[in-house]
Amino acid sequence: ADLNIRKVVEMALLTSASAVILAHNHPSGNAAASRNDITATRQVEMALESIEATLNDHIIFAGEDTLSFAQCGWLGQIKEEVRDYRREELQAAREQEAAILWGDSLL
To answer: Is the pLDDT reported for residue 13 higher than 70?
Structure first.
């Protein structure tokens, strides 16, 4: 089943959580992260960042095997990607504002 990111944010807000750990199982017995796992982690990081909460880890359980996004370094990489994206987004917004203020509307 797909992760409901809205529900994750809602639960974080309802419980006044400042940090979240995602965890789920792979019944296949293979703890390797799927493309969907990585995408969901990125989306949750972006959503939590917007409410000033932190994603501390995303852990996959598969029988005796586990995978921690934090331990393998993926979470740090995803956080860096999200920060870069936000910086670019902010810069684009500033450029649009400047264009509007100076009568050079981009819209």
So the answer is: yes
